[in-house]
Design goal:
An eight-stranded mixed sheet has the order 3-2-8-9-10-11-1-12. Strands 7-6-14-13 form a four-stranded antiparallel sheet, with no helix packed on it. Helix 1 packs across helix 6. 43% of the residues are buried. The protein has 13 helices and 16 strands. It folds into two domains: 219 residues, no CATH class; 135 residues, no CATH class.
Length: 378
């Protein structure tokens, strides 16, 4: 039983509460959106009361503020401050302790409220971390039993451009259940089933069948969101554009503003680079930790004798070119899902879409072919 054989259903707010309870009864740790420290973040939730009811947000270059909505929507925000990477691929993880190798911990998780852009990012991590020769066993452990409740976006944020990247705003696959929230004419959620397990869990809640009017309203809301993205990124010929403009002066221009603070890579849902820390103290057992790393640090590209990318311009070019061009060569898809977090959380207000547009407006190809200067490693 999948979405192709199960008619869309309707859940009320009480039904949504029952859905969360049903997931907890199945021993899932439910992680979902909640308000903390002035932002919508992902944390463990137990009921609808934990959700950001009546909360929206404003996002722009270096700008994030919560706002009060004029309705009781619980999914009326856009991309949260965190991506799901923080749950499935933690920023700090113990690899070895005094007793030897440490097993993976955490889960099984029910991920509630996964936006389409983040769903695409999880799919990218699935490929990069579990479907190549070297499997990341810790990620695989958390991901294997995860139950995904996706959310169709009906109101894009000021920095969203998932429509440009083909990753939203409507989730297409990779979920167990998908919700579209409708607040006009009665608060309700149109539910689409994406897996047999999703159908089983939904059946425990006892939803009603969605009417054609409900389905049409959900489709119209998502369509309106696609037409009103806060940002846009032209992707035609993007790989060649970036490869052929490795010496474009725009890289120096952006470097004059970039702080190399690593914020963009930390909030990016697809960045997966890590380093290893050795921790030793007289009063504690030694530990080996895996921690997130960033290509914006000088040590990231350090080889014997020094750093390969000493300048900020080289590091920004590496990040942008790998994300938007070389990632396609390596993994078959773009490394950018259009969530806009790198724009929102950049303290220097650097806008990736604007930087690419500037290069496109004044291309200055360097001599040679695209194969002579691709950025191939993050």
């Amino acid at each position: 039983m999948t979405s192709s054989t199960t008619a869309p259903a309707i859940l009320t707010m009480d039904g949504l509460d029952e859905l969360l309870a049903a997931l907890r009864d199945r021993h899932f740790t439910v992680i979902g959106p909640t308000v903390r420290d002035g932002a919508v973040v992902h944390a463990e939730i137990t009921c609808v009361a934990d959700l950001p009811r009546g909360v929206g947000d404003e996002q722009d270059n270096a700008h994030y503020r919560l706002r009060q909505r004029d309705d009781d929507a619980v999914l009326g925000y856009t991309a949260p401050a965190q991506s799901w990477k923080a749950v499935l691929f933690p920023a700090r993880e113990l690899l070895q302790g005094a007793g030897g190798d440490e097993p993976a911990t955490g889960g099984p998780y029910a991920l509630f409220g996964v936006r389409s852009c983040d769903l695409a990012a999880i799919a990218i991590h699935d490929h990069v971390l579990t479907r190549r020769a070297a499997v990341d066993v810790r990620y695989a452990h958390r991901r294997a039993g995860a139950f995904v409740v996706a959310v169709a976006c009906t109101q894009p944020g000021g920095t969203c451009f998932c429509a440009s990247m083909g990753t939203g705003p409507q989730p297409e696959a990779g979920y167990d259940l998908c919700l579209t929230e409708l607040v006009g004419g009665g608060h309700r959620f149109v539910v689409t089933v994406g897996s047999e397990l999703g159908a089983e869990v939904l059946a425990e809640v006892g939803p009603t069948t969605a009417t054609d009017e409900d389905v049409d309203a959900a489709s119209a809301a998502v369509g309106a969101a696609a037409d009103h993205m806060g940002r846009a990124l032209a992707t035609d010929g993007l790989q060649d554009l970036l490869y052929d403009n490795a010496e474009h002066p725009q890289w120096e221009d952006v470097a004059s503003r970039c702080l190399a603070c690593t914020n963009c890579t930390l909030v990016c849902p697809t960045c997966f680079c890590t380093s290893v820390e050795e921790v030793s103290a007289l009063a504690a057992a030694p530990q080996r930790l895996r921690v997130w790393d960033s290509c914006f640090t000088t040590d990231f590209s350090y080889l014997h004798g020094g750093s390969v990318r000493e300048s900020t311009s080289a590091r920004y070019r590496q990040w942008a070119t790998h994300k938007l061009a070389a990632w396609v060569d390596q993994f078959g898809v773009s490394g950018c899902v259009g969530c806009g977090r790198c724009i929102t959380w950049c303290p220097a207000a650097i806008d990736l879409t604007a930087e690419v547009a500037a290069i496109r407006a004044t291309p200055r190809p360097t001599a040679g072919t695209r194969t002579e200067h691709p950025e191939t490693k993050e």
